[in-house]
Amino acid sequence: MLKLRPATVVEIYSSAADSAADRRGHPAGEQQLMVELTGQQAAEGARRRAVADLALVGRSQVGDEVIVNVQALDLGLGSGGFDVVHVNLTRGLEGDGPPDANVMKLNYTSLQHTVAPVEEEHLQLPVEGPVGVLALHGQLAAVAWAFAQRAPGLRLGYVQTEGGALPGGHSATVRMLRERELLAGHLTAGSAFGGEGEAITTAGALHHGLRSLGWDAAVCGPGPGIVGSGSSLGHGGMVALDSAHVALALGCPTLVVARLSSGDERSRHRGFSHHTLTVLDLLLEPVTVALPAGMRSPVGADLRAGLGAVFGAGKRSRQTKGQMALAIDVERPARIARHDWRRASIDLPGYAASGLPTETMGRGLIEDPMFFASALAGGSALAELTGESAVEEADSDTAPGEYPGVEGADVQGASVEGS
Q: Going by C-beta distance under 8 Å and a sequence separation of 6 or more, which residues neighbour residue 251?
């Protein structure tokens, strides 16, 4: 059940700018607050960090009486270490939705609110614009930066899905990317809410962004944080499977941005994360997957050796109490090798100097370069797919490797190393 406590707002640290407000004008983003718990269950002077989602509860002011959800902070969650304002008792009666809103989000909960969906009446297939599918929100900045380096002038939009934070205003990364024009727009789909446009489904968001908003490509994935249980299927990374299938069904060239790590202490996430391996195994159709240049492809004359070179040792390690078996043992190698594996040159020093986020789960770029390298490779390959899509649409005589709007692209196509 909900763990709610009364509190008083004692300080306001920051407030997201209304530049993030959606096209209907209601406020987006969030406020970062300091609140002091009150009531019999609160220790005297117990001050705690809290956030208030502007799209749900409006703006708070010092002295406001609020009800906060304290569960995440009490549990010490790394990606949710703060209280969340559930309702502002001082100003809550002033709330009102946009006049054209007619669809509920977070429906049948106490947080249900109306939105005006972006879905169009007419379906135009195939959509054709390329879609990059994320495993983690932490990949977004590197993907968008690499896409812009390889495809200057092309418009990349972001569709936020379930799997992580649902409030669209919670992402400082999105605000930064929008301010620097590395993202052309931000739509929230399904239960996610608070973007510049609201979609009932991921399919509707991709169709709207690529067909109506003029995006040249889209990146699709969860908001900050991730839901996880340590099991093969019980984690937010599985939303990538759904998103990839939606993109494929719409006729979009589809790329899965691999989750790799050289610094994660958990064996199931070192090298190729089991999150990515599971998605690549279960996909009903092949997709494109990018690796940083110099990393051996899993496709070659000796398939098992190639897989072992990428994912690690070919045999499952002994399982100890409280630990999962290593995910690098690929039990169905043909399912992994059937995808379009590409290598992309990357610029880690350039990204490090960009001023964009360089931290994932407490590890910086130096501690986990492979995480950022794989995301940069994904952005470069997505730019290449965008160029290929433009060439096919124009049916031009462009020379191989030269794509309109993709200046200096040196992604090496589908060529792979043997084992």
A: 125, 126, 127, 128
* Domains of the chain: residue spans and CATH: 4-97 (2.40.50), 131-394 (no CATH)
Query: Do 118 and 195 meet the contact criterion of CB atoms below 8 Å apart?
Result: no
Please, what's the largest Cα pairwise distance for the chain? 75
For residue 32, which of 47, 18, 50, 19 has the smallest C-alpha distance?
50
329: which residues sit within 8 A by CB, 6+ positions away?
Answer: 311, 313, 314, 315, 316
Take residue 401 and report the two structure tokens written for it.
Answer: 């490797």
Q: Where are the alpha helices (DSSP H) in 61-139?
A: 71-75
For the stretch 200-245, pLDDT in tens is 999 999 999 999 999 999 999 999 988 777 788 888 889 999 999 9
**CA–CA separation, 7 and 253 (whole Å):** 49
* SS3 label, residue 84: strand
List, in sequence order, every beta strand (DSSP E) within 145-207.
Answer: 156-161, 185-189, 197-199
> The tokens 């607050």 sit on which residue?
33
The reply to whether omega before 126 is within 30° of 0 (cis) is: yes
**CB of 113 closer than 8 Å to CB of 105:** yes
Residue type, 196: E
Tell me the per-residue pLDDT of 23-57, one tens digit each, with 9 for 90 and over: 344 456 889 999 999 977 666 658 899 999 888 88
Closest to 254 in 3D by CA, of 155, 367, 126 = 126
